[in-house]
Amino acid sequence: MNRRGTEFAEVPGRKRSRVALLAAVCVVLAAPLTRARAQDDSRPLKPSEALHAQVYVSLEPVPRGRQFEIALVAEVAERYHVQANKVLADYLIPLTLTPELPPGFRLVATEYPKAEVKKFPFSKQPMAVYEGRIVVRATLEAAAGAPTGPVKIPMTLRFQACNDQLCLPPAKLPVTAEFEVAAAGAPAKSVHPEIFHK
Q1: What are 17-36's pLDDT values in tens digits?
Q2: Most buried residue, 39, 63, 64, 130, by most Cβ within 10 Å?
Q3: For residues 136 and 157, what is the distance between their CA atoms, to the nearest angstrom?
């Protein structure tokens, strides 16, 4: 075989060696990244990352003189829970939704979901907690003299989130309900039946 033929015969072997070397380098470089990703997944969340919430209003618009509901729908992060509204120990922070009502509105009642009582490794006593999706409903009334037009009701959701090993610091999440107020007797449409079911 001539020299040119020998050179072409050797090239595939060189390519295989280079590919093998490159694959080994990739494995070595990928290992720290995999460990770092695992560490990120296991790190404690920030309180703001442990719960996400949206606000819904039951009527569109809200006529003067009518009662209506505001629902806060929250999703607790996977592998986490939040303390319930009625805690089983004084040192725990209950979940509460506090509206800052403008003139012309009255809070009738606030309904919190039923808690689940569970035992965790870091506590000798069981705890009343919420996990996954939770819905807090507030019933309000628009007075006869409530201002018509767009209205915003700021609210504060206070909570404490924990996983199986530790509790995060208590947190306050500001949320806002936005809706229109119409004249007394105006037609109103019930909205979000998947949330405000009876």
Answers
A1: 444 443 443 333 343 333 33
A2: 130
A3: 10
Assessment of whether the complete model's pTM goes beyond 0.85: no
Q: Report CA-CA distances (Å) from 151 to 55, 103, 170, 177, 183.
A: 14, 11, 29, 8, 13
Spatial distance between the Cα atoms of 170 and 91, rounded to a whole number of angstroms: 11
Please give the torsion angle defined by the CA atoms of residues 135, 140, 142 and 146, in that order, rounded to the nearest 10 degrees.
-90
Q: Which CATH number applies to 47-190?
A: 2.60.40.1250
Q: Which residues in 23-58 are b (16+ Cβ under 10 Å) and which e?
A: eeeeeeeeeeeeeeeeeeeeeeeebeebbebebbbb
Alpha-helical runs (H) found in the chain? 3-42
In this predicted model, which residue has the larger pLDDT, 37 or 20? 20
* Order of strands across the sheet that contains 127-130: 116-118, 127-130, 81-83, 161-162
- Do residues 150 and 178 touch, judged by C-beta distance below 8 A? yes
Compute how many other C-beta atoms are within 10 angstroms of the C-beta atom of residue 17. 10
78 burial (CB, 10 Å; 0-12 / 13-18 / 19+) is exposed
Q: Residue written as tokens 């919190």?
A: 112
Provide the residue count of the chain: 198
One-letter identity of residue 56 = Y
